[in-house]
Design a protein that fits this description.
The chain is an alpha+beta fold and 123 residues long. The protein contains five helices and five strands, in the order H-E-H-E-H-H-E-H-E-E. It has a domain of 81 residues. Strand 4 and strand 5 form a beta hairpin. Helix 1 crosses helix 3. It starts with 16 loop residues before the first helix and ends in a 10-residue tail after the last strand.
Length: 123
């Protein structure tokens, strides 16, 4: 069978890495939303909640996790800006009305408490 080389064809493996990151960033941005603690609590009980510090861009963190960027994730973890949600913070969130935002990077749910109303983009 002869292949017609004049017709465009799709091969995801040929897409530049930068484009994949941009596509993931756009996808995660579109899937990011405010979330109530009541919706986070069951996920926390299953150990699926990763807390992202307000100083880290939530979408950038999602992309780094999805792309298995061990260096960046390890740096954030060493700086205590990325990691499993701890019990003390969970209790604090349960007692108040925190401004929480979340995005799913299966099987994880990345959650960020925003101090300001503005999203933490490109920090």
């Amino acid at each position: 069978m002869m292949m017609n080389t004049n017709e465009p064809h799709s091969n995801a493996s040929q897409q530049p890495i930068g484009d994949l990151s941009e596509d993931r960033w756009a996808l995660f941005l579109s899937q990011t939303a405010q979330i109530a603690w009541a919706d986070v609590a069951p996920l926390f009980a299953r150990g699926q909640v990763i807390q992202v510090a307000d100083s880290v861009d939530l979408i950038t963190a999602a992309v780094a996790l999805a792309e298995d960027d061990k260096t960046q994730v390890a740096q954030w973890m060493a700086q205590h800006r990325f990691g499993l949600l701890d019990v003390a913070t969970a209790k604090c969130w349960a007692q108040g009305e925190p401004n929480l935002w979340a995005v799913v990077v299966n099987p994880w749910v990345l959650v960020q408490q925003r101090v300001s109303a503005e999203p933490a983009l490109n920090r």
